[in-house]
Design brief:
Layout: H1 9-16, H2 19-28, H3 33-73, H4 87-96
Length: 98
């Protein structure tokens, strides 16, 4: 687990992160750099877990939209003459299918 930091990591984090980014974490613990680094690492873990969930939600939504649009407008709905997509999206699909 990332929040179980090896010795010396807080100093390395301070060398990598901007002072402005690390300062709020240190402030929570009265300037304790070790605890601030653990809090920062926990934030990284939580952000990663949330991003993973958002990924599946986004992919699931796109898949469902594709299924519904395919049922309503046919297999190639993205080329439908009723212009279901905006110009940018149509251009992207055309480019991807060449």
């Amino acid at each position: 687990m990332l929040s179980q930091l090896p010795e010396g990591v807080p100093a390395k984090l301070r060398g990598i992160l901007a002072v402005k980014r690390f300062r709020p974490y240190a402030a929570v613990f009265g300037g304790d750099q070790e605890q601030a680094a653990r809090l920062y690492a926990l934030n990284v873990e939580l952000s990663g877990a949330l991003l993973e969930l958002l990924h599946f939600a986004e992919v699931g939504l796109r898949e469902r939209m594709h299924t519904e649009l395919t049922q309503a407008y046919g297999r190639y709905w993205f080329f439908d003459e009723r212009r279901l997509l905006d110009d940018r999206s149509t251009h992207s699909v055309t480019k991807a299918t060449k």
